[in-house]
Amino acid sequence: MAGDKLPSEAQLMKHYEVARMTARQAIQELRSEGRVVAEQGRGVFVSQPVQVRRLASERFARRHREAGLAAFGVEAEKTGFTPRVDQLEVSTASPPDEIRDRLRLGDGGDVVVRSRRYLADGQPVETAVSYVPASIAAGSPIVADDTGPGGIYARLEELGHELDHFTEEVSARMPTADERRRLQLTDGVPVMVVLRTAYDTTGRPVEVCDTLKAAPAYVLEYDIPAR
Amino acid sequence: MAGDKLPSEAQLMKHYEVARMTARQAIQELRSEGRVVAEQGRGVFVSQPVQVRRLASERFARRHREAGLAAFGVEAEKTGFTPRVDQLEVSTASPPDEIRDRLRLGDGGDVVVRSRRYLADGQPVETAVSYVPASIAAGSPIVADDTGPGGIYARLEELGHELDHFTEEVSARMPTADERRRLQLTDGVPVMVVLRTAYDTTGRPVEVCDTLKAAPAYVLEYDIPAR
DNA sequence: GAGTGGTCTAGACCACTGC
DNA sequence: CAGTGGTCTAGACCACTCA
């Protein structure tokens, strides 16, 4: 059953009369299928079935920001999980080219970088890095650890950048070893990469958010007009 | 470079003065990221990069249908690849529950099923299965092998179902062995699943399309209003 | 047959967990 | 501290590829 502990490697070796690496590999099979999770110093446990979070584009509606909810909070309330954010780091730096292009920055412009990890019921499900032009964010709550009710987007609107629309670029791939660790993914679990750009009503890109989601935990929903 | 052969395990052991299992594990990291592919008896090779196709939601604009282009044709023209469709199968059947729900069919309603595979420059990149209620499609060009200029959506509009909008549900996972064969994927390459539902102006769902895309070949672009 | 990756045994030290 | 999984060395046999 979910949460149950598997026999330890030592027990498996004894019981099946195999070498440790053989027992480990059997466990590795289960891990790569995502059926069990290893915790160092504790044991190997049968995975909790992954609850799927449906992310509708509705999560960026202004009324949510006005109600003091950031996007992850909207999903938490809707899906009924307990949200948490950790590994928060805020800095000012020169952005990667990919980001620079999307923000239409010249060669010189720095950005405020907000990196964090999102957890649902204690389980890491997403990492996100936001980039806001320093010319917009400097001295605002966007550089504070806690951006306040409604998150970055609410603060951007208070700074006079009324949001008009977002674009999201969605792709999927296997995670790097680092990413796998940070999202506590087992082998063989892919990630979705969502690169979101926020535009204000003047058409200026005011934020780019680079997110990495544990693929099994998410379904993204989008609405497309037939025009 | 792509296609290049990595040093063999024996060479790595000698060069870095490590045990074989250590060299193997380093290679395993790269394999799980899909960056290299191991072939028994031959060696380990750098994966071929797949050309990325950006799929903007714009591909469903009515003007394209009126110009006689289906969505895949729009992308082909924009990206400059040669499109091809094969493995086409058309039938009438009782749909899976997942589809039945989205089409809001009663227990009895059959659907026309159009299954096909898309190739770009000869390389399989996507499989798709469309489901249209038989009550709509029966006797129309939708059941023909060639649906004609503008594809299914153009025919649906001619049948009086003017399209209003689509929803797309995007997820990612590892392919099954069958799916891997059909898309000619190597080990460790994930797929994106896009389930699209088309609604007419009366709010009725008139088609569901279940697509499977080779993840490395695609970036999906969506536009989200801030409202 | 030489070279390759796939799999296995046997044993070591380490880092982390929880009592 | 004992028990756990993480990582490493050292060596073996096998299946497969290719000249």
TrEMBL record, chains A, B:
PROSITE patterns: HTH_GNTR. Gene3D superfamilies: Chorismate lyase-like, Winged helix-like DNA-binding domain superfamily/Winged helix DNA-binding domain. Pfam families: GntR (PF00392), UTRA (PF07702). Keywords: DNA-binding, Transcription, Transcription regulation. SUPFAM superfamilies: Chorismate lyase-like, Winged helix' DNA-binding domain. One of its GO terms (biological process) is negative regulation of DNA-templated transcription. Residues 1-49 form the HTH gntR-type domain. Transmembrane segments: none annotated. This is HTH-type transcriptional repressor YvoA. It comes from Pseudonocardia autotrophica (Amycolata autotrophica). The lineage of its organism: Bacteria, Bacillati, Actinomycetota, Actinomycetes, Pseudonocardiales.
